[in-house]
Amino acid sequence: MEYEICLEPSGIRFMADAGQNIVEAAKQHGIPIKHGCASGSCGDCKGTILSGDSEQGPFMPLLLLPTERAAGMAILCKLYPRSDLHLRAEVVPKDTWTAAITRLTPLAWNVLELRLQPERPYPYRTGQYARIAIPGHPDQWRSYSMATPPDATGTLVFHIRELPGGIFSQWLFHEAQIGDQLMLGSAQGEFTLHSDNDRDMLCIAAGTGLSPIEAIIHESIALGRTRPIHLFYGARKQADFYHLEELAKWSQQYPHITITPTLSDTQDTSWTGAHRLLPTVAASGHWKDHEVYLCGGPGMIEAAIDLLLSHEVQHDHIHFDAFAPNG
Ligand SMILES: Cc1cc2nc3c(=O)[nH]c(=O)nc-3n(C[C@H](O)[C@H](O)[C@H](O)COP(=O)(O)OP(=O)(O)OC[C@H]3O[C@@H](n4cnc5c(N)ncnc54)[C@H](O)[C@@H]3O)c2cc1C
Ligand code: FES
């Protein structure tokens, strides 16, 4: 069964099958509704149902606050039409940038630092991510967070994990050369520093989830803010950690910054630090009045949200970016 979908304010209309979510159906018609993970984990496809019937599939907790649900907001990559629908949804300009690879530096056995120089200024806010087209697959995009705040050089820095069978990461680790050109879509995401309050900051990063968290801490330092920041940084095994020395330097230079690396491999007796990310966070403080920044895989984010809510941290002080697969 097909239904007509009408988008506001653009007035764009297209048909969607009952078994297709709105983002997928729009994509099939060449309409770029704003989205990131396309799997209910990032919240970038939020829209509003103006009229019509639909079915909302499951998505990451907290992507929609109760007030947003009451106002008719929906996660469009998990929204299925059950009648003709009238929706408010952001359609992204089809603006793209070409950027040359200027450096590829190993950070850990499965993490590379990728540096890109866009051919013209690439505007973004600290903590946002870029969508990068996979070379040779121009209709397939992958999301990667910028690891540093914007600066005068215009260079973009990313921390990229190699995934077994990963189309983009396998190309980057094994074929990419300095000078290769990549295509970028405009920057996206709402995972940015909230500098409108003086709450202490709790940051929790797992794996390359460190990338936007580093950028956010970097920006806080550059703004001259001295509110306490506690960063918990988790890895599976010791070889997975990267930037431990750089983080240690931050905590030596800035007394308001505390770094706690944690290891999930509890069998590793050569590790003298803390084991297991979230239990360490839970045991390390009272987080009720903190501004919280979470970044890592969707499983970690969901478990962290549960933990924080049980510590009475308010919804609107929990910010997160889930590094969901976006194949
Ligand atoms: C907003 C956002 C920002 C992101 N920023 C970063 C970043 O800065 N650095 C970074 O390394 N990654 C980041 N990611 C995750 C990255 O975009 C995905 O992992 C992406 O799918 C990797 O592309 P690939 O082509 O290498 O692998 P794919 O071809 O997409 O996937 C290969 C296989 O790995 C699985 N897979 C993919 N991603 C994951 C995952 N995260 N965890 C477990 N299994 C997975 C897939 O299901 C598939 O089986 C981000 C994701 C989002 C949504
Ligand atoms: S694109 Fe819909 S939640 Fe990420």
TrEMBL record:
Q: Name one GO biological process term.
A: bioluminescence
Kindly indicate whether the keyword Cytoplasm belongs to this entry. Answer: no
Please state which protein family the record places this protein in. Answer: Belongs to the Fre/LuxG FAD/NAD(P) flavoprotein oxidoreductase family.
> Under what name is this protein listed?
(Fe-S)-binding protein
GO MF terms listed in the record are:
iron-sulfur cluster binding; oxidoreductase activity
Names of required cofactors: [2Fe-2S] cluster
| UniProt xrefs under InterPro entries | 2Fe-2S_ferredoxin-like_sf, 2Fe-2S_ferredoxin-type, Beta-grasp_dom_sf, Cbr1-like_FAD-bd_dom, FAD-bd_FR_type, Flavoprot_Pyr_Nucl_cyt_Rdtase, FNR_nucleotide-bd, MRET
Where do the FAD-binding FR-type domain residues begin and end?
A: 94-194
PANTHER family on file: NAD(P)H-FLAVIN REDUCTASE, NADH OXIDOREDUCTASE HCR
Q: Which domain of life is it from?
A: Bacteria
